[in-house]
Design a protein that fits this description.
70% helix; mainly alpha; 4 helices
Length: 102
């Protein structure tokens, strides 16, 4: 859904479906560390998801377009880049990544 979509809401929905699918895999051992990692993963992904929505709404406000290919406003591009870096665990947004992988 995420890769094939041309609309921001569909891309966001695909990312959230992926997040909800990974959460049970992280916390399946019911160990306190696994629960902590799942909580950190969920909170980080929810924050990044909110930033993706904010970026798309910001772009729609300035350009009037919800199409992914029309991301032209510099602030929207910066917020979206930060949100995707947070979702992927890229530096400097990698604070949650080692805990989830461990």
């Amino acid at each position: 859904i995420t890769i094939s979509s041309n609309h921001w809401i569909m891309a966001w929905a695909g990312l959230e479906i992926n997040t909800l699918a990974v959460l049970p895999l992280i916390s399946k051992s019911h160990h306190p560390r696994a629960i902590e990692a799942a909580t950190k993963y969920f909170l980080t992904q929810a924050t990044a998801s909110a930033l993706v929505l904010f970026s798309s709404m910001n772009n729609a406000w300035y350009t009037g377009q919800w199409d992914i290919t029309q991301l032209t406003h510099p602030t929207s591009c910066l917020i979206l880049t930060s949100a995707l870096a947070m979702k992927l665990g890229l530096a400097p947004f990698h604070f949650w990544f080692p805990k989830v992988l461990h």
